[in-house]
Write a structure and sequence with these properties.
6-stranded mixed beta sheet, alpha/beta, Aminopeptidase, Histone Acetyltransferase, domain 1
């Protein structure tokens, strides 16, 4: 890490009169305004103006107090992260420093919160890593379990549908935490997790229930040697499920920025689905999925369900009822949810859990109502009923249930009691007391859900054609 400050002006002029005044309070600078982070694959890219600049989720969390940097004038921080060894080097320049009332930010400590031991002090040492660790990813591959990826069409290959050319040289592998090679490798990936995965924190590399799935690109250089490059990875926790199986929970997934929007995220998800099926786990879940990730996941699972015969009769039955009459004139709620037997078939065969199935169910019904414009009014009513059930808790099994914390000497975060409210007791769900506002809020939620369903349906239709 290099710190550079222009030399102070040593010249003095006795004729100049010293001016005395009051300095203004330092307003600080946002880290994003003075920091640039580049992902580089060779020493020639270090210092180049056209390098690949990554866009961190939130830099403020790594700086004290309100997340700003204080005490520097003309501050510029440039960081290069090697995609070969995942070491980093920071070049810091500024015109001057002064305490403007908020102190002077310790930049080295802040950067070490992000990069830890991957941060290299000297630039020459950082540049040396491009040659000394050129085979680092290859050494990682030798410590992992190579997985054969089975594409969604049922044929075993190293591609995903339309990505055949791009992924022909891609290898998928699994590493299990709890051993030295996996722990050291993930430690080098932690800075990318902190910078690019929203709300994420490092996994416990000593816990063997954590699994790391990697996508690496294999290429042969002019000398005939194989060169490997990391494309992306996902971390998964294997939970015990009574009595004799397990559940896979996806925690983090990241495709490195230069390879994003090329289908590798889908590749990782399909890989995990196939592992779940081949190892007969109970199901696959996701820890707090972000909106875009959930969109991709729903597209993938909807495509899987469209060719899953046991669900077709249930979909057709609901579609037929939605095509008959107007739901707005009905006198009672009709059963539009998938039967429990179908829910179980989907879980057992495709490892899709019930919550995820219901997300896809809405898209399957939409696709079945062809032409959709003719039956859109009924479909919106159908979605409105589902949204109401989500909010009120009706038909979800949570109506009238409340969770309260209780004092305990064991573990405060794990101590609670769930009880069913008696008639007339207040619900834990906060609703706007104004009826008009409730209706407006409900309509907004319905509109947003229908919009998302249409987007998923459009992408699914493109993949089917």
């Amino acid at each position: 890490m290099g710190l550079k400050q222009p030399p102070a002006d040593q010249s003095t002029d006795p004729k100049k009169r010293r001016r005395v005044g009051f300095s203004s309070i330092d307003a600080g600078v946002e880290p994003k305004e003075c920091m640039k982070i580049f992902l580089v694959s060779s020493k020639d890219e270090v210092g180049a103006s056209d390098g690949f600049c990554i866009d961190p989720i939130d830099l403020n969390q790594f700086f004290d107090d309100d997340g700003k940097i204080y005490g520097y004038q003309g501050l510029k921080i440039t960081i290069w992260v090697s995609s070969i060894s995942f070491h980093a080097y920071a070049d810091i320049t500024y015109q001057s420093t002064s305490d403007g009332g908020k102190g002077i930010t310790d930049l080295k400590s802040a950067l070490q919160r992000i990069f830890a031991e991957t941060l290299v002090e000297k630039k020459d040492d950082f540049l040396q890593t491009f040659s000394s660790e050129i085979h680092y990813i290859r050494s990682v591959v030798t410590n992992g379990e190579i997985l054969q990826h089975k594409a969604s069409n049922g044929h075993s290959n190293d591609s995903v549908g339309h990505l055949e050319a791009e992924t022909s040289n891609v290898e998928a592998l699994r590493m299990v935490a709890g051993n030295m090679p996996a722990g050291l490798f993930y430690s080098r990936l932690v800075p990318l997790v902190l910078l690019l995965v929203d709300g994420s924190s490092p996994i416990d590399i000593t816990d063997s229930k954590w699994e790391i799935y990697l996508l690496v690109e294999k290429k042969t250089d002019q000398q005939g040697e194989s060169q490997y490059r990391l494309l992306g990875f996902t971390t998964v926790y294997r939970f015990y499920h009574y009595p004799d199986t397990s559940r896979l929970r996806l925690s983090q997934i990241l495709v490195l920025p230069p390879y994003q929007h090329k289908g590798y995220g889908r590749y990782l998800l399909e890989l995990l689905n196939n592992v779940a099926i081949s190892e007969n786990v109970y199901d696959v879940t996701v820890e707090e999925p972000l909106e875009y990730f959930q969109h991709v996941r729903t597209c993938i699972d909807t495509l899987r369900l469209l060719v899953f015969d046991p669900i077709q009769d249930a979909v057709n039955s609901v579609v037929l009822r939605l095509k008959q009459g107007k739901l707005s004139k009905r006198t009672h709620t009709l059963p539009f949810m998938p039967p429990l037997s179908v829910v179980e078939d989907v879980r057992r065969s495709l490892k899709i859990n019930k919550k995820q199935l219901l997300q896809c169910w809405e898209v399957l019904i939409y696709l079945g109502l062809d032409p959709i414009d003719k039956f859109m009014e009924n479909y919106v009513t159908f979605i409105s009923d589902l949204v109401k059930a989500d909010i009120i808790g009706k038909d979800s099994g949570t109506d009238g249930k409340q969770v309260i914390e209780v004092a305990s000497d064991y573990d405060q975060e794990m101590s609670f009691v769930m009880f069913k409210s008696q008639a007339g007791e207040a619900s834990s769900i906060q609703m706007d007391e104004n009826q008009t506002n409730q209706e407006e809020q409900l309509q907004q939620l319905v509109d947003e859900r229908v919009k998302e369903i249409k987007l998923v349906a459009q992408k699914v239709s493109l993949h089917r054609s």
